[in-house]
Amino acid sequence: NFISLTTFELKRCKSLILLPKELSNFISFTTFELKRCKSLILLPKELSNFISFTTIDISWYLSLTSLPNELSNLTSLITFDIRKYSSLTSLPNELKGYSSLASLLIELSNLTSLTIFNIDVKDTNNKKIHKLVESVSKKK
Q: Which range marks the domain in which residue 90 is found?
């Protein structure tokens, strides 16, 4: 029985197009890693049911074009890595649900627009965060 499984890691599945819906039965996951699954075209919005996620690493995709907006419901998320996407053209509009987020790693070579990108910042005394907000604001 795998009900208490805490880590899901899947790498280099070249022909995987969709994740099985049964994956949502494993509510104990805290770490979710999908890397180099070149044919994956969609992440299920049911991933937002994993409220205990602390780490999501979904880097190095080639076919995924968007992320589900429902991912903003993951309030326990500490690390979110979405680097090395060649076809991802948009991000969820809001990341305000990530009240525990400590590390956000983004590298998107084909991002076509970023009209609204809200991040709630709880630690208003953090100088690095203020510099980031100033930097992003200047690029508008």
A: 7-138
